[in-house]
């Protein structure tokens, strides 16, 4: 774990977050600045800086499965939702700890900006 990484600090409980679901390898919590009625972040407990970081390979399926479970739990599975992984500068990544956004509860535009 990196002591300077914001999401590592959330994973360790050092910084609080509104927890939505937990698994052995990953956890889900509400985004502090929601962009949709449902906006949940899914992170691996172990630090990986982005999707480019292959150290996260063993947990990628867990992350996606938790995104699906959160969509069901939040009641947006049927209406629809989007899973986004912003990666590096052009992707708009602002926190350097791999995370999936689960967005839903309204019609989302396409293409994104
Ligand atoms: P990114 O821009 O890297 O794809 O997404 C980072 C997300 O983390 C943003 O949507 C931002 O609102 C969220 N975020 C940043 N700081 C915090 C925080 O301290 N707590 C929570 N729950 N979300 C945060
Ligand atoms: Zn981290």
Number of helices: 3
The CATH class turns out to be Alpha Beta
In CATH terms, what is the architecture? 2-Layer Sandwich
Note the run of SSEs as H and E.
HEEEHEHE
In spatial order, strands of the major sheet run 1-2-3-5-4
Number of domains: 1
- Helix/strand class: alpha+beta
Termini separation comes to 33 Å
Provide the gyration radius in Å. 13 Å
**Total beta strand runs:** 5
Q: Report the sheet-strand fraction.
A: 15-25%
As residue ranges, the low-confidence spans are none
Q: Can you give keywords for this protein?
A:
alpha+beta; HIT family, subunit A; binds guanosine-5'-monophosphate
What does this structure look like?
It is globular and about 35 Å long. The protein contains 3 helices and 5 strands. Strand 1 and strand 2 form a beta hairpin. The protein has one domain: HIT family, subunit A (2-Layer Sandwich), CATH 3.30.428. Strands 1-2-3-5-4 form a 5-stranded antiparallel β-sheet, with helices on one face. The chain is of the alpha+beta class and 113 residues long. Zinc ion binds next to helix 1.
Task: Summarize this entry quickly.
The protein is an alpha+beta fold.
